[in-house]
Amino acid sequence: MSVIAEHLATVRHRIAAACGRCGRDPRTVELVAVSKTRPAEDVREAFRAGQRIFGENYVQELVAKAADLHEPVEWHVIGHLQSNKVRQIAGLTSLIHSVDRLSLARELSRQWGRLEKVCNLLVQVNVSGEASKSGTTAAEALALVREIARLPHLRVQGLMTMPPFFDDPEEARPYFRELRLLADRIREEAIPGVAMERLSMGMSGDFEVAVEEGATLVRVGTAIFGER
Ligand SMILES: *Cc1c(COP(=O)(O)O)cnc(C)c1O
């Protein structure tokens, strides 16, 4: 077994254990293997170990890797996305986790519309309010979701967040909980075309806590591929 395959097995096991602790079905948690800075060969290795969803931060890197790989992997964009780069990834990705402004949503709508496809997205919320983090504020999230929902060729599927970094993952718990409660509040609005059924939260250091708080997508890089 390769090191990557071993790490993947460990991460999947830890997700299942976290689900066991809170009575969730492990099939409701999708693992996004964050392959940024990693060569295509590492993605192939993970694919051979059964991994299908890969997360990338940089458009250039994603486009190059996607061209290099012929395996049917699913690409997710998880990092800050510039509107002028959207055209390059139109139709290539199955989920954008990091939509934090209307101008970006407009460009996604335009570029996916050209292909007559629908772009699935999550709205990134800066729950902690840290200046260094992207994301709309919790207070503005509902309004942003409403405006995005009016655009064609888009489907808002839920929310994403990145809490501050803590040595103790327990300290991230309130931020994960806050995101879930925010999604619940937005779901109650029953906005047409808005599902709010996916929550992207949790990374290598805190994904188990995120699962306990309701994550349906965890974004794990280091624990699978090693230190960057
Ligand atoms: C890099 C990155 C991750 C993965 O981080 P690890 O600590 O390596 O698991 C998850 N989410 C986002 C948005 C990232 O940029």
TrEMBL record:
Family matches, as CDD domains: PLPDE_III_YBL036c_like
InterPro entries per UniProt: Ala_racemase_N, PLP-binding_barrel, PyrdxlP_homeostasis
Record PTM N6-(pyridoxal phosphate)lysine, positions in chain: 36
SUPFAM superfamilies xref list: PLP-binding barrel (SSF51419)
Keyword GTP-binding: no
Family: Belongs to the pyridoxal phosphate-binding protein YggS/PROSC family.
Function: Pyridoxal 5'-phosphate (PLP)-binding protein, which is involved in PLP homeostasis.
HAMAP family per the UniProt record, alphabetical: PLP_homeostasis
Designated name of the protein: Pyridoxal phosphate homeostasis protein
